[in-house]
Structure formats: C-alpha cells, structure tokens
C-alpha cells in the first residue's frame, strides 16, 4: 500500500516535470526561431539569467521581505478577525440575518477599486498594503468560519452540555475541532488573497516590494523582469501552500485521506 502510494506520487511529479519542460522548451525554441516576439514574452533563458542576477546581487531580497511582511500581517489579522466575526454571527443567528445582505454587498465590491481609498486614508506605507490584504482575507475566513460553525452538530453540543461541559470546553473540544477543516480550507484560499492584496497595493502606490517591481518593469517595457517577479511570486505562493499542507496533515491526523 505504501509502495503504491509512493509510486502514484512519483508519477505525478514526473508528469509535472515533463509538462513544465515541454512548455519551457517550446517557449524558448519559439523565441529563438522568431516564431514568438521576445519583446512581449521574453524567453526562459533570459528570465533565468535575470533571476540569478537578482538573487546574487541581493537586489530582490528587500522587495521579497516587504511584500511577505505585508501579506503575512494581512493574513494573520484578517484570519483572526474573520474567524471571530464568523463564530460570533454563527452564535447569534438573528444578528447574522440582519447583517447578511450588508456583508454580501461589501464582499461584492472589487478590492482593486478600494485600493486608492486605502492609499489615501493610510498613506503609501505598509499600513495601506496590509489593510488591502486584510480585507481580501477577512471575507474568505469569515465565510469558512461561519459555515464551519453552522455545520457543527447541535445534538453533539446538547449532549456534552448535558454532561456538564462549560461553554469554554464546548468551544475548545467540540466547535473548534469540527471547524478545523473549514478553517484550513479558508486559510488555503486566503494565502493567494493576502499576497494579491499586498501586490495590488504596491502596484497602485509604492516605492518597494514585488508589486512595485512589476509596475516599474512594465513602465520600462522590461518584460524579462516582469516574468522574473511572477516566478518569484509563484515560488512564494507554492511555499506558503506547502506550509498549510503540513499544518493540515498535523491538525487532521484523525482524518482518513484517500490518495
């Protein structure tokens, strides 16, 4: 069984590598034979050279640190706020019914349109970027927490309450464990939202960060640098997703996974 699972994983990795290699090879060859215009899409070899230069010189490291700080602060604050409000409205159903249309209306507002307002309110510093990331994360974690809370079995809560459990014990032993899968699902979606929020803020108004790098490179028609920033952002997203996967496995050891 273990051997079969390892074989499946190896097959998946091999296919990923094959598809990526074929894609990059076609891209590189297409540019070299002039089938594609390098001005618009650059080419893998040039992007690789630019990435090496960015890291060897250390030029990109401060930008990565700033973007990650903004995204992670927005992720943490947005998650805590979203979970708290989600549980609160889950407990007080009458309040949830009153606020439901308001929350949905706010959720429907494109976050990009709010960016200039946040820049105006909080300035061009880190606060505005954190707030954009926070807002993006809040709704995702709120909906996950609220749905998780509403799916906790009322019969189970009544049973442990009859056994003498306190509110705190019910929250720690019943509600939170039951909501963990929902919260982890919301957290996984929030990773991209937090990073996107930070990038949008930097793209609108900033003098540092990966979003600023993309904006600056676009203004100079430096397609290679734009793709380099995209590769770095993709790598950061993959790393954060891997961390959530490890957290998922640790918190949900009891769950039977079908590979």
Structure overview:
This protein has a single domain, classed as MetI-like (MetI-like fold), CATH 1.10.3720.10. The chain is 84% helix and 0% strand. It has helices at 2-32, 38-41, 44-57, 61-91, 93-107, 111-122, 126-150, 154-162, 167-204, 210-219, 223-251. The longest helix is centred in the last third of the chain and has 38 residues, at 167-204.
List the helices and strands and how they pair.
Blueprint: H1 2-32, H2 38-41, H3 44-57, H4 61-91, H5 93-107, H6 111-122, H7 126-150, H8 154-162, H9 167-204, H10 210-219, H11 223-251
Summarize, please.
The chain is mainly alpha-helical. 84% of the residues lie in helices and 0% in strands.
Number of helices, where a helix is a run of at least 4 consecutive DSSP H or I residues: 11
Fraction of residues in helices?
Answer: over 70%
Order of helices and strands: HHHHHHHHHHH
| Main sheet record | none
Total DSSP E strands: 0
Low-confidence stretches: none
């Amino acid at each position: 069984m273990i051997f079969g699972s390892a074989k499946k994983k190896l097959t998946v990795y091999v296919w990923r590598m094959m598809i990526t290699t074929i894609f990059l090879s076609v891209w590189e060859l297409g540019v070299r034979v002039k089938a594609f215009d390098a001005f618009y899409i650059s080419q893998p070899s040039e992007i690789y050279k630019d990435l090496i230069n960015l890291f060897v010189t250390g030029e990109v490291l401060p930008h990565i640190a700033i973007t990650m700080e903004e995204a992670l602060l927005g992720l943490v604050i947005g998650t805590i706020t979203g979970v708290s409000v989600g549980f609160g409205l889950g407990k007080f159903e009458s309040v949830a019914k009153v606020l439901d249309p308001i929350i949905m209306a706010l959720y429907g507002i494109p976050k990009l349109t709010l960016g200039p307002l946040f820049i105006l309110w909080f300035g061009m510093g880190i606060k505005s970027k954190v707030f954009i990331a926070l807002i993006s994360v809040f709704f995702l974690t709120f909906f996950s927490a609220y749905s998780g809370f509403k799916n906790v079995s009322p019969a189970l809560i009544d049973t442990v309450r009859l056994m003498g459990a306190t509110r705190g014990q019910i929250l720690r032993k019943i509600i939170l464990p039951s909501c963990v899968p929902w919260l982890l699902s919301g957290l996984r979606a929030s990773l991209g939202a937090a990073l996107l929020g930070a990038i949008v803020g930097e793209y609108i108004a900033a003098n540092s960060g990966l979003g600023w790098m993309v904006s600056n490179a676009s203004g100079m028609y430096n397609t290679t640098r734009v793709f380099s920033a995209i590769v770095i952002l993709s790598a950061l997203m993959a790393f954060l997703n891997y961390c959530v996967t490890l957290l998922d496995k640790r918190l949900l050891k009891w769950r039977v996974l079908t590979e």
